[in-house]
Structure formats: structure tokens, C-alpha cells
Amino acid sequence: QVQLVESGGGLVQAGGSLRLSCAASGRTFSSYAMGWFRQAPGKEREFVAAIARSGGNRAYADSVKGRFTISRDNAKNTVYLQMNSLKPEDTAVYYCAADYSTNDVARARLYEYDYWGQGTQVTVSS
């Protein structure tokens, strides 16, 4: 099992930046594909970004391509989401997720993830 704790959310003006972090427990972090999802009020949880076990493969939602960057540090058991050029429509609770993976791919589908963090609020003001 793995436990995930997100941090780094907050209130930022449109055009600003935030970096989210997700710290994972356990000694096998490098065996997990990791992802970021978000959920705005009244909407379903949606995919934002994903990264494979090694960090070599990444995937992004079209809405964040070119603005967000996912990365991981397996030595620190942490995955990051650098968010630049934030827009009001990026406002949501952001969740980190982990999937024990036998191959080195980035996973974009919500149902593929077994473990979830508690979420961190990101609010972008106009």
C-alpha cells in the first residue's frame, strides 16, 4: 500500500504559478505510475497529468498542455505538478493518485488508479 499527501495548493491570481507536491509513503515508490486529477464544484473528477514509473513517459490533458509540467523524484518519493499561466477555470481540488504498475507507461484514466490523496485546493482569481 501507499499513502499520498498533497501540498502546495492555495489562492493565486490568473497568470500566476503554483507547484503542487505529493509525498508518498513506502519504499517502492518507483514501482508506481503517478497521476494528478482535479475536481471542480459540481463537476466530475478529471485527468490532468500522469507520469510513468521512471519518469520517462508523461501525459497531459489538452486543457493544460504547455502550461503544466509533471515530474517525479523517486529518491524523495515525491511527484510534482508545476502549474504556470493559471486560469480561473483551473480552480479545483487537485488529487494525487498512484497505480502499482508492471510497465513504464503514463496512465490517464481515473479507474486505473488504486490510491488517492486527500486533495489540495487550488483557487485562481480573475
Q: Would you write up a description of this structure?
A:
There is one protein chain. The protein is an all-beta fold. It has no helices and eleven strands. The strands form two sheets. Strands 2, 4, 5, 6, 9, 10 and 11 form a seven-stranded mixed β-sheet that branches. It has a four-stranded antiparallel β-sheet with strand order 1-3-8-7, with no helix packed on it.
Task: Briefly summarize what is shown.
With 126 residues, this protein is an all-beta fold. 0% of the residues lie in helices and 48% in strands.
Straight-line N-to-C gap: 40 Å
Q: Please, what is the average pLDDT? A: 96
* Relative strand content: over 45%
The biggest sheet amounts to: 7 strands, mixed
* Low-confidence segments: none
Helix and strand run: EEEEEEEEEEE
- 3D shape: globular
Q: Could you list some keywords that capture this structure?
A:
126 residues, mainly beta, 11 strands, 0% helix
Topology:
Elements: E1 4-7, E2 10-13, E3 18-24, E4 32-39, E5 46-51, E6 58-60, E7 68-73, E8 78-83, E9 92-100, E10 115-116, E11 120-125
Parallel strand pairs: 2-11
Antiparallel strand pairs: 1-3, 3-8, 4-5, 4-9, 5-6, 7-8, 9-10, 9-11
